[in-house]
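Holo prediction — NAP.
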Amino acid sequence: MQVLNGKELALKKRAVLAEKTAALIKEQGIRPCLVVVLVGENPASQVYVRNKEKAAVEAGFESRILRYPADLSEDKLLSLLDELNQDTSVHGILVQLPLPAQIREDLVLEAIDPAKDVDGFHPFNVGRLWTGDPLRVPSTPAGIMALLEEYGINPAGKKAVVIGRSNIVGKPMAEMLLAADATVTIAHSKTENLAQLASDADILVVAIGRGHFVGPDFVKEGAVVIDVGMNRNDEGKLIGDVDFEAVKNKAAFLTPVPGGVGPMTIAMLLEQTFQAAADTKD
Ligand code: NAP
């Protein structure tokens, strides 16, 4: 079994991006600027936002985090997004999810200028992805596609099963694999005979949020297994949706947690922001 080392590839991609950023600043006078909007005190969100900021700064970007209390009104957030949309010095806008209950997530995502929507969650960008002409795309599945490419894994003609149908991972993942000519099945919590279905897959992507849910009975001999899950076990340790030790002798390629999909997500977010900045020179 070969480990798909997302940590290593992410570092490589970020180093390339730092060079491209230096050139964009020098030649065009454009410094990519990523604004992250954080509402409330969700501890996991605080960690994600700090990691994104650190990575953005290391790439040579301007990074701004706008922090608001959990009781921020929906109207205030929408008018703030309007200001950021108008601000030509801002290239990427990311609203950290989840949002407090009084704020409707769909309205907020639709309020971001699609060109600055570096998470790729705006319905415009979802449509562009599904019609085969992507503009900004969700970073997690994009990072997985980059990992497959790096290791010479071509999805064309392969059977792919994606477990999980969220808008941020499962659905865009399925579309990206389809665009790469895989034959794709999307599974979810109502899927019957899940292990049997999964064990037919050449490429198995698991994004469900259940620690070590996937064992060897889900995995075909020689399959590529991608673990998106980030869960805490009873000791507070970060674990994936896949039981790495239990499937490592069956899979041909496997992503670890941590060090697999997670670091790729951040690298791809930076790439999206760089692209949004570079697009403004046209
Ligand atoms: P989500 O919105 O909660 O969606 C979970 C999906 O899994 C749903 O479609 C659900 O089915 C399905 N599911 C849940 N239990 C299942 C079961 N027992 N059998 C089959 N399907 C099941 O989660 P998400 O946002 O996609 O995230 C999934 C996991 O990936 C989480 O652990 C999250 O922390 C992690 N994540 C990691 C990264 C990264 O960068 N590494 C990025 C994003 C997310 P239904 O639709 O039927 O409810």
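READOUT: The chain has ten helices and eleven strands.
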